[in-house]
């Protein structure tokens, strides 16, 4: 929830925060960062993951994604692909500011992933 407050959602006003837990116990946070050229926008999940990778983390347990929505918000397709590439079948916890949450495995959100197992 704290990571969400740092979001730069100047255009959509849709703030999202994430926290990624590495197997070594470190937690890496991220928030969405929007650009006026929308294609350059980056989601909170990828910010957290790229921070973790850049700090040397290689294995992950779960990611928590928080948004201010009634319905719990799942990671977008691009984030699902990048998480699959670097995290494998981790737990994904979707939560909102009202106390709602749901935990699923990434394979439930991304049932037919593209990945290195194909080549």
Structure description:
The structure is a single chain. This protein has 119 residues and is an alpha+beta fold. The protein has a single domain, classed as 3-Layer(aba) Sandwich (Cytidine Deaminase, domain 2). The protein contains 3 helices and 5 strands, in the order E-E-H-E-H-E-E-H. A 5-stranded mixed sheet has the order 2-1-3-4-5. The longest helix has 11 residues. The radius of gyration is 14 Å and the shape is globular. 31% of the residues are buried. The mean pLDDT is 96.
Features:
alpha+beta, Cytidine Deaminase, domain 2, 22% helix, single chain, five-stranded mixed beta sheet, 119 residues, 3 helices
Please outline the helices and strands.
Layout: E1 16-22, E2 27-31, H1 44-54, E3 60-67, H2 77-87, E4 91-96, E5 101-105, H3 106-109
Parallel strand pairs: 3-4
Antiparallel strand pairs: 1-2, 1-3, 4-5
């Amino acid at each position: 929830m704290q990571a969400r407050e740092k979001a730069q959602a100047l255009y959509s006003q849709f703030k999202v925060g994430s926290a990624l837990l590495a197997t070594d116990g470190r937690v890496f946070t991220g928030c969405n960062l929007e650009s006026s050229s929308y294609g350059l926008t980056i989601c909170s999940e990828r910010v957290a993951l790229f921070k973790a990778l850049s700090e040397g983390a290689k294995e992950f347990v779960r990611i928590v994604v928080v948004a201010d929505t009634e319905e719990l918000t799942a990671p977008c397709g691009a984030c699902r692909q990048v998480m699959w590439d670097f995290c494998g079948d981790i737990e994904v916890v979707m939560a909102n500011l009202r106390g709602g949450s749901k935990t699923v495995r990434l394979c439930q959100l991304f049932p037919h992933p593209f990945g290195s197992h194909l080549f």
